[in-house]
Amino acid sequence: MCSDIKLWRMKNFRFLLYICMAGMAIPSGAQDGAIRMAGNAVGLENLKVERSGSNLVVDMDLRLDDLKLPSNVRFVFTPLVKGSGNVRQMSPVVVNGRR
To answer: Going by C-beta distance under 8 Å and a sequence separation of 6 or more, which residues neighbour residue 46?
Structure first.
C-alpha cells in the first residue's frame, strides 16, 4: 500500500511547465539560463515549482523590461502545467499597451 502511494506521488511529481503565448514566438533559452520569449523582449526567471499538500505552487518572475507594446495592443502570458496526461491552464497575466 505504501509503495503504491509513493509510486502515485512520483508520477504526480513528473510534470512539465509549458508556456503558451497567443501569437508569440516559441521560447528559447538565453545565455543567462532564463527563458526568453517574444523576440527576447520578455523573460521568465527564477522559476520554482513545488507541491504543497494537494496544491502545486508555481513561482516565477516575468521580466517585461524590454517589452514595447503599441497602443491598444495586449500581451497575454498563460502558463500551462502538464503532467500525467492532463493539462491545466493557470491564470493568465495580461499586459495592455498604452491608450
So the answer is: 59, 60, 61
